[in-house]
Write a structure and sequence with these properties.
elongated, 25 helices, alpha+beta, 11 strands, four-stranded antiparallel sheet, 835 residues, transmembrane, Membrane transport protein MMPL domain-containing protein
């Protein structure tokens, strides 16, 4: 593209036959000289990808949510076969409406539930536990030696005698606080899940599984019991169910964006065309995702929503150019070609910056975030074609209404010779006093914001599932579990690796016991369980229940005898791996970091060739690894996203000063975004981490559009004040429209039943609006110091002496009332500083 020619004011061509179709670059000629074929190809592509989009699925995967390359998770995956139930599992508490669990009707209902859940596809059946499963056993020391059996006796018949036996067995089972509530008013089904449905070989459908659980809940609650369900699968199921309501927000966003655009253009047909192209972009994105076998998940499902909002805002800029050209009398086809010439490079730069904000997320070693990055990048790639190519071509057929074009010209003409009050206010920031105040205030905000941002934590800051509202059904169920069971769902498991058949050696169990004691002193730990604690309990039982013997006996025969009756979850088949269960009060960031630090310190001091203490399994262990990855990725991500944006800005402006002016407002916004997260009690986690990158990548668009026109006018000889006024007149309104449209679109997420989406909506709306304010306030203030511009060059007969590398015709020294010769948006790399 010949940038210099593109920046010049294009001549008014009223009749299409007067236009030279051989003008323009190769891309323009190839597209606009074959418009019918381009439209037909897009129509066929829309039909094809629309059909493909019908196969797009909404699901989630447990392993996609965890950082599989982190050493903790790698340890878990290496020993996964020996740690069944410590990854993805459900806990289902069943409570009688009245009385205790020692009731025949209650136990009959529990048995039916147990059998029905046992047969659900995806349940890891050998490791499922409840009062009715054979692996729930009791052990006792009697005068005849060790005795034991299943908790529910083989001859159970629901009689009072059976209830007495059952109560005794429960009390001897060690399951009080784990499978049975301490007050005997509920019992639990522990349901570990497989990654794939064994019947189909496909990944487990969490949405379908969650619906099956809800059907079971509705069915058996009629029998006089209350059912509470927690676990990753239920969280995902509730998220997916809530996402179905997000479609309402999508429709609302379409209505809001269309209304804002119509208010700006007052042209129905062109407004509808912009909306149509944005929807086509989303449809193509869905079709491509299905073609490449991607699935939407609760974390990426709103990306198409964001793509639509970006498409609407960029489409408004294309309409702005065509509307102004048509208002001057240019034929609609020629106006579309002029707009394509002027906006293709600038629009490409803006969308590439958007793409950078997404692509840097690929570096985060969590599959769900990497998928989000790919899904979003596909959406931006589609926008490059639908907004930069298809929309101008379609507008060349429809144009804009003559009334809307005339109205826009009248508004511009009315502003000639006088500045609107808002423009006058913003122009003050190009003056030294206002610029100094703006820079000083921004610096103070940045310093204070940085100090506050030091309080930002990584991980969850609330109990339960922070992804859902505090009053959601899931979080109420979780609160019930925490209140009634000591063995919470937040379990961290330390793996102790030994040589085969050596896991019950005294020196190994002594170290496990020592670590368990240290962990139990931490404020976030409820209890621990391990082979060491079982061995101490057995020693007590062997000695008539005398707790003076509650200690590890340095007698290998005695320790080995415990192994024969120990629950299989405490050690593996060949006795080469022990599991130390750490039951936590919650999975808050501070709780996890304290436990991890203690285990790491202990492992560093006690690991030998014979025994190795490894982190980590269990839901809390995996979350601890995720927090570590997110914390490291946050800084790395900011480094890469800012590095890429700086390179793109330099390639666009060819001036380090212009880069500083464009990027510093983004830095301030990133700092203030972290402050907002601290004030709102948000932690940095999988759900919120992408927002920071997206805000930077999309926010730099504003600087590209404003700064490009400023530099163009300065090179044409305008003062900074005049150049900024032209930027406001030609792109300021569009920048405001972009900021407001994007902010309103994502602000609708605040009403989502899913809390993390509401959080994303708040953060994105803040970043979009604050980046817009930065481009209109802080950018001219910084330009006063870094880009003041040269004195207006001397003119002879109205012509500038000397060369004009940008190919711009400067405004007359006296200040002409004629329309300035600057396009609506300009490819800014043509107007950069040259030295």
């Amino acid at each position: 593209m010949n940038i210099d020619n593109d920046l010049e004011q294009q001549p008014v061509v009223r009749r299409l036959q007067d236009f030279d179709t051989r003008s323009g670059n190769l891309a323009e000629r190839a597209l606009f000289n074959h418009r019918p074929w381009i439209v037909l190809a897009c129509l066929l592509l829309t039909v094809l990808l629309g059909f493909q989009a019908t196969g797009l699925k909404l699901n989630a995967s447990f392993e996609k949510m965890i950082p599989t390359s982190h050493p903790y998770v790698a340890n878990y995956l290496e020993h996964k076969a020996d740690l069944s139930g410590l990854g993805n599992s459900l806990r289902i508490a069943v409570a009688p409406r009245e009385g205790t669990i020692f009731d025949a009707n209650y136990l009959a209902t529990l048995q039916k539930m147990n059998d029905e859940i046992y047969l659900l596809p995806g349940v890891d059946r050998p490791f499922m536990k409840s009062l009715w499963t054979a692996n729930t056993r009791w052990t006792a020391v009697t005068e005849e030696g060790l005795d034991g059996g299943t908790v529910i006796p083989d001859d159970y018949d629901g009689s009072p005698r059976s209830m007495e036996v059952l109560r005794a067995n429960v009390e001897r089972s060690g399951e009080i606080g784990q499978l049975v509530a301490g007050n005997f008013k509920s019992s639990m089904l522990f349901v570990p899940l497989l990654d794939k449905n064994p019947q189909t070989g496909q990944p487990l459908d969490y949405s379908a599984f969650s619906r099956q659980l809800e059907d079971i809940r509705a069915k058996y609650q009629k029998d006089g019991v209350a059912i509470h369900i927690t676990g990753f699968t239920k969280i995902v199921g509730d998220l997916i169910e809530g996402l179905r309501q997000v479609l309402v927000f999508f429709v609302v966003a379409i209505a809001i964006a269309s209304a804002v655009l119509y208010w700006y253009t007052r042209c129905w047909r062109s407004t509808m065309l912009v909306m149509l192209c944005s929807l086509v972009a989303v449809l193509w994105q869905f079709g491509l995702l299905a073609t490449f076998h991607y699935e939407l998940d609760p974390y990426s499902v709103l990306v198409p929503f964001l793509v639509f909002a970006i498409g609407m805002s960029h489409g408004a800029q294309k309409m702005n150019g065509i509307m102004q050209d048509v208002g001057r009398g240019t034929h609609k086809v020629v106006a579309a070609r002029y707009t394509f010439r002027r906006l293709f490079a600038a629009g490409m730069s803006a969308l590439l910056c958007d793409a950078v904000g997404f692509l840097v997320l690929v570096m985060i070693q969590i599959k769900v975030i990497q998928d989000l990055a790919v899904i979003a990048s596909i959406g931006v790639a589609v926008l490059i074609f639908t907004n930069l190519v298809l929309l101008p071509i379609l507008l060349s057929y429809t144009g804009v209404s003559a009334k809307a074009a005339a109205r826009g010209m009248e508004a511009d003409a009315a502003q000639q010779g006088r500045k609107p009050w808002l423009w006058s206010l913003l122009d003050k920031f190009t003056q030294r006093r206002w610029a100094t105040a703006a820079v000083a205030a921004s610096t103070a905000l940045a310093v204070l914001g940085y100090l506050v941002s030091l309080q930002l934590q990584v991980g969850d800051l609330d109990p339960g599932a922070p992804e859902l509202r505090a009053d959601s059904r899931y979080n109420r169920d979780n609160a019930y579990m925490v209140q009634n069971y000591s063995a919470s769902a937040d379990v961290l498991v330390v793996m102790v690796k030994t040589a085969p058949d050596q896991c019950t050696q005294y020196q190994t169990l002594a170290k496990v016991d020592a670590l368990a004691w240290e962990l139990e002193q931490l404020p976030g730990v409820d209890a621990t369980n391990s082979m060491a604690s079982l061995s101490k309990l057995a020693a007590t039982g062997y000695n008539e229940g005398n707790f003076k013997w509650y200690n590890l006996t340095p007698n290998q025969s005695a320790l080995g005898a415990v192994q024969t009756r120990a629950p299989r979850e405490l050690f593996n088949q060949n006795c080469s791996l022990l599991s130390l269960y750490v039951y936590l009060k919650d999975h808050k960031a501070a709780t996890l970091s304290g436990v991890v630090a203690t285990v790491e310190r202990f492992a560093a001091a006690n690991n030998t060739k014979e025994e190795q203490f490894l982190l980590a399994a269990g839901s809390a262990g995996i979350e601890a690894a995720t927090n570590i990855v997110v914390k490291q990725a946050m800084r790395d991500m900011l480094f890469w996203v800012y590095g890429a944006v700086i390179l793109l800005c330099y390639a666009t402006f060819r001036s380090w000063r212009a880069v500083v002016v464009a990027v510093l407002p983004l830095v301030l916004t990133s700092i203030l975004c972290e402050v907002l997260m601290v004030w709102l009690g948000m932690g940095v986690k999988v759900a919120t981490l992408p927002v920071i990158a997206l805000g930077v990548g999309i926010g730099v668009d504003y600087a590209l559009y404003v700064l490009s026109v400023m530099l163009a006018r300065q090179r044409a000889g305008d003062s900074l004040s005049d150049a900024f006024h032209h930027a406001l007149q030609f792109t300021g309104r569009v920048v405001m429209l972009t900021g407001v449209t994007l902010a309103i679109a994502v602000a609708t997420w605040i009403f989502s039943p899913i809390k993390f989406q509401a959080d994303m909506g708040i953060l994105l709306a803040f970043m979009f609006l604050w980046n817009m304010v930065g481009a209109l306030v802080l950018l001219p203030a910084l330009a006063h110091f870094l880009l003041p511009g040269a004195p207006r060059p001397a003119t002879t007969n109205g012509a500038t002496l000397g060369s004009d590398p940008a190919g711009l015709t400067p405004a007359s020294a006296a200040g002409s009332s004629m329309r300035p010769s600057v396009p609506d948006e300009v490819p800014s790399h043509a107007v950069a500083e040259r030295g």
